[in-house]
Amino acid sequence: MLRTIFLLFLIFALSNASVQDFCVANLKRAETPAGYPCIRPIHVKAKDFVFSLGIPGNTTNIISAAVTPGFAGQFPGLNGLGLSTARLELAPKGVIPMHTHPGASEVLFVLDGYITAGFVSSANSVYVQTLKPGQVMVFPQGLLHFQINAGKSPAAAFVTFSSASPGLQILDFALFANSLPTELVSATTFLDPALVKKLKGVLGGTG
């Protein structure tokens, strides 16, 4: 008797179970630490789950590089799924400076050209590799890493992150593109104050 009651209860529970398969971002609402609010499923379209990274970014800048993000703000179908993507473009001599993603690990897939990439572990061990098209490299969450064009022609790569909001902090900008006094930057980095002022001037910092 108890078994029959249990089976009936299980069938009833399963028949009324509701699984939220996705949470397409409502970009008209503000993003929260948990992501964007969901739009109603009745308004979801197939195009919400499709995004194009086929157009190269503009590399005419100080680092001769460009990153085209495919985060929830651009790619609503990613919202709530714990991942995101981007396209990386490196002109000859282009570089993505030392930076970290506090919220995610990163996988880089080289599409064109040659890219020297690497990261520094928390024990200050260095892992560097020159990658060719078709090769993949992973950068563990929170560790300083970089990418440099290692060839004489443009290079391109796709990256994926293990979070919808990986975060980004570029070391050079963190040190020299802010209002932290030169004396403090010099004291904490052991760099000459004149060099700190020069770098602040280049990157737009003050102090």
Structural class: alpha+beta
Assess the beta-strand content as a share of residues.
Answer: 25-35%
| Spatial order of strands in the largest sheet | 1-2-9-4-7
Could you name the ranges where pLDDT drops below 50 across 5 or more consecutive residues?
none
State the separation between the terminal residues, measured CA to CA: 80 Å
GO cellular component, one term: apoplast
Family: Belongs to the germin family.
Main location: secreted
Pfam families: Cupin_1
Name a few traits of the molecule.
alpha+beta, 4 helices, 19% helix
Task: Tell me what you see in this structure.
The protein is an alpha+beta fold and about 210 residues long. Helix content is about 20%, strand content about 25%. It contains four helices and ten strands; from the N terminus they run αββββββββββααα. The chain has helices spanning about 1-15, 170-175, 180-190, 195-205; strands at about 65-70, 85-90, 95-100, 105-110, 115-120, 125-130, 135-140, 145-150, 155-160, 170. It has a five-stranded antiparallel β-sheet, with no helix packed on it. GO terms for molecular function: manganese ion binding.
